Recover the amino acids of this structure.
C-alpha cells in the first residue's frame, strides 16, 4: 500500500494489526507512522514505550525509543529506562548519546556531561553526521548557561567550543585531507 501511495489504507492496516497483536514489531511500525506522518508524538511515545517493554535489550528498538522520546520530550522517561537497562544497552554509544541529551534536558548536567565526555564511541555514526557534536555542544551550552545564568540563546556554539573544544573522537564532520 505504501508503494501505491495509499497511506490512509496502510495506516488503517497498521492500527488493525496492533489491535489484533500488540507485538513489538507492530507497535514500532505504528509508533514510527504516528511520529513521522501524523506527528502525534505522545501516541508515538506510548506505542514505542510499550514495544520497548517487550524487547528492552534489543538495540535497534532502543534507538528508536530514544529518538521518539527526544522528539516527544519524554526525557525523564528515557533516563529512567536507561538507568534500568542492561549493561550492553548502557554501554552503547548511540544510547549514551540519547541519554546524555535527555539528562541535559532535565538539568541533570553532571550525568549528561559524564556520558558524552567519557570516551563516547558511537560505532554507527557516519562521516558528516553531526549528532554527536550537536549533543556535546548542547550539553556544554547548558553547563555554561547554568554557570553564568545566561539564556541558552545568548550563547553561541563558537563560545561553547572555545571553552570546551570538541574532542577529535567526537568530531565526525568532514575534514580536509592533510598532506
Amino acid at each position: 500500500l505504501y508503494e501505491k501511495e495509499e497511506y490512509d489504507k496502510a495506516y488503517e492496516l497498521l492500527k488493525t494489526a496492533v489491535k489484533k497483536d500488540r507485538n513489538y514489531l507492530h507497535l514500532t511500525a505504528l509508533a514510527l507512522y504516528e511520529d513521522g506522518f501524523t506527528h502525534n508524538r505522545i501516541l508515538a511515545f506510548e506505542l514505542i514505550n510499550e514495544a520497548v517493554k517487550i524487547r528492552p535489550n534489543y538495540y535497534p528498538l532502543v534507538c528508536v525509543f530514544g529518538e521518539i522520546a527526544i522528539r516527544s520530550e519524554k526525557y525523564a522517561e528515557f533516563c529512567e529506562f536507561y538507568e534500568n537497562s542492561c549493561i550492553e544497552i548502557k554501554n552503547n554509544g548511540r544510547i549514551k548519546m540519547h541519554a546524555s541529551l535527555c539528562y541535559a534536558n532535565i538539568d541533570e548536567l553532571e550525568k549528561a556531561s559524564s556520558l558524552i565526555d567519557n570516551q563516547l564511541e558511537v560505532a554507527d555514526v557516519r562521516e558528516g553526521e553531526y549528532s554527536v557534536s550537536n549533543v556535546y555542544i548542547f550539553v556544554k551550552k547548558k553547563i555554561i548557561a547554568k554557570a553564568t545564568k545566561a539564556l541558552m540563546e545568548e550563547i553561541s556554539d563558537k563560545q561553547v567550543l572555545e571553552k570546551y573544544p570538541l574532542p577529535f573522537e567526537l568530531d565526525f564532520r568532514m575534514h580536509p585531507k592533510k598532506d
